[in-house]
Amino acid sequence: MDKKEEILDSATKKLFSNIDQWQRETELVSAETYREYMRDGNTRSLASLEKLERAFERVLDEVSKTVIVDTPAIWSVYNMGYLIKTKESLFSIDLIHRRAIELADKLDFALITHNHSDHCDIELYKKLNSASKTVISNFLDNYGAHSKRNENSIGGGFVMGEKTFRIKDVEISTSLVDHNKYLLDFTTAFEIRVGNWKFYHTGDCGVADKLKTSNGSPDVWTFFPGCGIKVATAIKKIQPKKVVFGHLWELAHSSSRLDAPLIKRALKKAKSVNANVKVAFWGDRIC
Hints:
Helix content is 28%, strand content 21%. It is α/β, with parallel strands linked by helices. The longest helix has 19 residues, at 47-65.
C-alpha cells in the first residue's frame, strides 16, 4: 500500500473507494453512448446511466417532500447542475439531465454559467423563456421574461458583468470569471444569498484571479477542481465553510473527463488547507 494512502483517515479511504467504483462504471460509457442515451432514454444496463436515472427520481422525490423552514437545500443532479429549494422558491443552476424539461413548470427561475452544452439545456431554456420565467446567463436573450404574464418575473436575465437580481427570497449577484487562460470572462459566477445563508457557484472557472465574494465567506461553494485551477489557492482566497466538488465524470466528454486520479488529487489539495470538502455524486443532497 502506498504510504500516502496509509495516512488517510477511514472516511477518506471510504470516499476514495467510492470514487474508484464510479470510475470503473463511467469508463464503460463512451461519449457516443451517452448521447444516444440522452436521445432514447435506454440505459443499456450500464451502471452509470442507471445511476443518472435514479438520481433524477431521487431528487424529484426529495424536492417535493422537503419543507424548508430556514436554511435552503441543494441537490446535485448531474455535472455542475444543481437544484436549490428555499422557503419561497425553487431554482436551478446549470441543470443538465435527459429529463430536465420535466422541471420547467416547477422552477421559478434558472441560472446558467456559460455557453457549453454540458451546462445549458436549450430546450429547458426555451420552455422557461416562453413561460416568461427569468433565465440569468451571459448568452441567452430571455426576452420572454419581460412579459407581465408572470408576476414573479423580474425581466430578462441576460447580463455580461456585475448585476444583482432579486427574485422572491433569493438575491443573486453576478460576475465574470475565466473558464481557462483562453476563454476569458466566459463564465458567470453566481453569488447567491437567502437571508444570512450564502452560496457560491462558479461554473467551470479554471483561474482563481477573478473569483470574489461581496458578502463574505460562502456557506457552500460548488467548485470545479479542473481547467487548471489551483485548488488550494482558490480555497484560501474564498474561504468557504464547505466546498463541494462537481463536474465529475462528465459523460459527454470523449476525453479530459475529471476522473478518479484528478479528483483524489484535488481532495488532498483541499484537505491540505483544512477545507471541509464534499464530492457531489449524482442525486446527492449536499446541504
